[in-house]
Amino acid sequence: LLGQILDHWFESEPLKATLATDAVIGAMASPHTPGSGYVLLHHVMGELEGQRGAWGYVAGGMGALSQAIARSAAARGTHIFAEKAVCHVLLGRDGRAQGVALQDGTEVKSKLVLSNASPQITFLELTPQERLPMDFVQRIRQVDTLSPVTKINVAVDRLPSFLAAPNTPDNWPLPHHQCSIHLNCESTHLLHQAFTEATHGHPSSRPMIELCIPSALDPGLAPEGCHVVSLFTQYTPSVLAGGQSWDEQARNAYADTVFDCIEAYAPGFKASVIGRDILTPPDMERIFGLPGGNIFHGGMSLDQLYFARPAPSYSGYRSPIPGLYLCGSGAHPGGGVMGAAGRNAARVALEDFRRL
Hints:
Belongs to the carotenoid/retinoid oxidoreductase family. By secondary structure, the protein is an alpha+beta fold.
């Protein structure tokens, strides 16, 4: 249990709760859930420019990272087809992957196919089921994809000013504006309470909020004097109590709760909002193809990691279909902006390609 680990090393509840957020991020779990300690380890085990456990902003927004990867690939002769939905994986008579068919009828032939989509989309939607072992299909269907995350993107006409550290008269970003700001994290009990509400089908009345202001470091993201605020919030169930759907009323009611919480820490925040985009778990699934809205393509619990990700005997990026590989967050070592699954999968695929 993460709670036991934190209690052993720290006394301050705000510090323990702030550390605990990285143990439950993207997970329908509380700091008291068995195995939550690993999720914290997963998020601090890496490094950035020699700084262990450090995170960073991408200049130009996260899309700039995808563009950088695309430019690097194109420089090496890669052809990129954007906005072209894949219909299914093409299989030869010998059962090997031979490319993909697009929804417009185009067939793209290749000797190897690497899928960055989730295991659920790759194997349950894009691959003929009769070509897969029944126990493998069953395992993929059983992957826990519960997600507690609702992401809210906000445009504001001024820099938020927090009671704990008010802005200077010139409204220039201060050091805390350039970091991840954790709200409603005064104690691990608060996080557990928010989690408990979601398990009963109710969005948290005092949700865990991670607030970032990327424009404080990258002014090009917003007009002068204005800012973009990114809110990563938990806990929101995928299905609301009583089978209620996430309609516009439910979305806005939850966002209002989040904004009321921020207002208590930074008076004037609500008046500064000029636009907001609310993405609940069903929205994340519909727009980005994330099963259950899960940002990691599946829970990062110990029973779904290492040799069991995405399924026992298939953690080495190869799939039951020869020539078809999994290279996204649903493969080992799981989610996070690190590219480890893709790099590992590419090495395995190249090894097989040299044998062909």
